[in-house]
Amino acid sequence: MTIIPTALPEVLMIQPKKLEDERGWFLESFRKDLLEEAVGHALDFCQDNLAESSYGVIRGLHYQMPPHAQSKLVSVLQGSVIDVVVDIRKGAPHFGKHIAIELSGENQNQLFIPRGFAHGYACLSETALLTYKVDSHYNKAAEASIAFDDPQLNIDWQIPEEKQVLSAKDRQHPAFEAAPLFNYNTPIYD
Fold first, then answer.
1. Which candidate, 128, 135, 145, places its Cα nearest to that of 56?
2. How far, in Å, CA of 89 to CA of 182, rounded?
3. What is the pTM of this model?
C-alpha cells in the first residue's frame, strides 16, 4: 500500500496494492499500523458507514465539531465519485482550500480525512457505493456543515447544475464564513 500526501498535506491518498490472477484479485483495504505511522498518531476507528447514491447526488459538506470530531477513511466499492475535502481549521496554512479527487471501485484509492476538515462527494456514475470508517461515533448535536455551492470555496462538483440532486437539508447549509469552524491551534486528538 502506498500512502501519499495530497495538496492538503494532512489529507492522505491511499493506494492499496492489488494482486490479480486468473481467480480474480485481492487487496488489503485497511492497515492500521501503516496508516497510524503515516498520520503520526493512534487511530481508533469505531464505526463503519455505507452510502449508496445515484448520478448527480451531492452530499456535503459535512463534519462534526469537537469533542465529537471525526477522522474518516473513505473508499468507493462500486461506481465513481468526486470526493471533496475542505480545510476548516482557522489559522492553518491551507485554511479555506479544498481538494477534489476521484475515487472509484475501479481505482480502489482511498482518502484519509483528519479531524478539522469538511467532507462531501458527488456521484459521477449511474450509482456508487461509498464506505467510510470514522474514529468517533456520530453525534447529532455536534453535526456541522457548509453550503456545497459556497462561492468562496468555488468547488467544481463535475455535475451540471440541472442534474444536481441534494437533500433539503444539504441545500440549507450555511456559507463558509458563517459556519462553525475549527481552531488550528486547539488540539483535536487525545
1. 128
2. 5
3. 0.94
Question: At residue 164, what are phi and psi to the nearest 5 degrees?
Answer: -70, 135
Top-level CATH class of 2-18+29-182?
mainly beta
Provide DSSP, 119-144: EEEEE-SSEEEEEEEESS---GGGEE
pLDDT single digits (tens) 130-179 = 999 999 999 999 999 999 999 999 999 999 999 999 999 999 999 999 99
Give the position of cell 470555496. 153
Is the separation of the CB atoms in 25 and 106 below 8 Å? no
What grid cell was written down for 98?
479544498
Chain length of the chain: 190
Residues recognised as catalytic: 62, 132
The rounded distance, in Å, linking the Cα atoms of 69 and 181 is: 11
